[in-house]
Amino acid sequence: MSYQTNAEAQGITFEKQPAGYLNLCIRSGNQLLTSGHVSDLKGKLGADLSVEDGYQAARNCAEKILRSVWSSHGTLNGLKVIKVLGCVNSTQDFTDQHLVINGCSDFLHMIFGKDGAGYHARSALGFAQLPTGAAVEVEAIFEVVS
Of 30, 61, 103, 105, which is most buried by a Cβ count within 10 Å? Predict the structure, then answer.
C-alpha cells in the first residue's frame, strides 16, 4: 500500500490549501520543510491536560503536516521523514514531552512504516507557552526520494 493510500485509510482527506501569511510547506532542493503546525487542542500538559490528551494533540499536528506536505508536493508517495521537532506547552515540572510527541511519531510510522521511510530523528521540548495556547506544535522535514 502506498503512503498516500495509508494516510487516506486513516481518514485524512487532502485538498489544496490556499496561500496564507506564511508558507506551511516549502521545498528546498530535495527537502520539504514545514512550518510549525499547532494542535486544535488548547491547554497545558502537567496542569489541565494528560499525556494521552497531548498524544492525540501531537497526532493532530501530524495530520495537519501531511495535508500541508500534500498541498505543496501533490502526494505523500516518494517521501521519507527526516526530522520532527515537537514543542509541548507544559508546566515547569512536566517531563514527559517525549511521550506526548510519540503521538506524532507513531502516526508517521503508521503511514510511512517504522523501518525505512518513517524512521526519523526527533526532538521533543517543553515550552512555557505556545501560539494561541495550543497544547502542541510540530514541524517536520521530509526528503523527496523519488
Answer: 61
Distance between CA atoms of 40 and 17, rounded to whole angstroms?
17
CA dihedral 125, 131, 135, 137 (to 10 degrees): -50
Smallest Cα–Cα separation from 84: which of 34, 50, 45, 128?
34
Q: What cell numbers appear for 63 in the block? A: 495530520
> Sign of dihedral through CA atoms 125, 128, 133, 135?
positive
Which domains can be identified in the chain, with CATH numbers? 26-144 (3.30.1330.40)
CA dist 55 and 61 (Å) reads 10
- Interatomic CA distance for residues 57 and 103, integer angstroms: 7
Read off φ and ψ for residue 31, nearest 5 degrees. -120, 145
Q: How far apart are CA 89 and CA 50, in angstroms?
A: 12
The model carries a pTM of 0.96
SS3 74: coil
Q: How far, in Å, CA of 106 to CA of 89, rounded?
A: 20
